[in-house]
């Protein structure tokens, strides 16, 4: 729980001071009673009763005052709610290096499995699109709220040659712009646009990645990047074993340029965890909701209980 006016909590010191005064008065009363010389007469005029009962009304009033102080400090709690009109482009590398088996069963199979789970867990109102790339980039699915269409598109991904990462970013930006034009929205509207880019290797063809990333930054589209695979990945090309290590440097630079988040994944389990994190970031937002209602209710109930007990047991409010 947070407070919009935390300075008002200082009034709790006043409540604590009043409690201290009450305890001091009770201590003084006990000493006065001991000095009463005729104990038999004292027992007649002040018949014995449970000591704790006498303090309950005061305790309830103190609780009510403390609750009132907390309520005027404007308590709020964070609530995760789905973003409105969010549009997300998934960009997945399908170059030949994605056939490496350093991630079981292969990089591509692990990537598609995790990607499908990611799409299925997104809020239904989030529009999702899919771009795949090898030596060229292609739009598999334009942004849509029909998430099953995107899942079906992921199932159709096949391996190619080359790694045109820069072209993939540009193609995804064009798809986002077209989707926002169709919906009559701009990338800066509530919910906004974002991109998730998964790749395992160094760009080899196409436009420079730095220029494409800067274009995304200029359009206000953050790119969360995932460097997938390990440094030990290999594939067989023409009967020859070729090393295909992951390329975290390029992925990190894209995320930094676009104000996105950079991740590294070397297993299906790690990738699923990363996609879950990204889904929370791009599909939901945190809102502050008023939390003073229950605190005010506690204050009123405590005050009523204190007043009621004082009347029943003492015949007076104070």
Order of helices and strands: EHHHEEHEEHHEHEEEHEHEH
**Average pLDDT rating:** 84
| Annotation, overall tally of beta strands | 11
- The low-confidence parts are 185-190
Instruction: Please report which band the strand proportion falls in: under 5%, 5-15%, 15-25%, 25-35%, 35-45% or over 45%.
Output: 15-25%
Order of strands across the widest beta sheet? Answer: 5-4-3-6-7-10
Distance between the termini: 34 Å
SSE topology sketch:
Layout: E1 2-3, H1 12-34, H2 39-45, H3 51-72, E2 75-82, E3 87-93, H4 107-120, E4 127-133, E5 137-144, H5 147-155, H6 165-183, E6 193-199, H7 209-218, E7 223-228, E8 234-237, E9 240-243, H8 248-258, E10 262-265, H9 268-283, E11 284-290, H10 292-314
Parallel strand pairs: 3-4, 3-6, 6-7, 7-10
Antiparallel strand pairs: 1-2, 2-11, 4-5, 8-9
Helix pairs in contact: 1-3, 3-10, 4-5, 4-9, 6-7, 7-8
Detailed description of the structure:
The protein has 318 residues and is of the alpha/beta class. It is built from ten helices and eleven strands. It has helices spanning 12-34, 39-45, 51-72, 107-120, 147-155, 165-183, 209-218, 248-258, 268-283, 292-314, and strands at 2-3, 75-82, 87-93, 127-133, 137-144, 193-199, 223-228, 234-237, 240-243, 262-265, 284-290. The protein has a six-stranded mixed sheet with strand order 5-4-3-6-7-10, with helices on both faces. Strand 3, helix 4 and strand 4 (127-133) form a beta-alpha-beta unit. The protein is elongated and about 100 Å long. 36% of the residues are buried. Mean pLDDT is 84; it is low at 185-190.
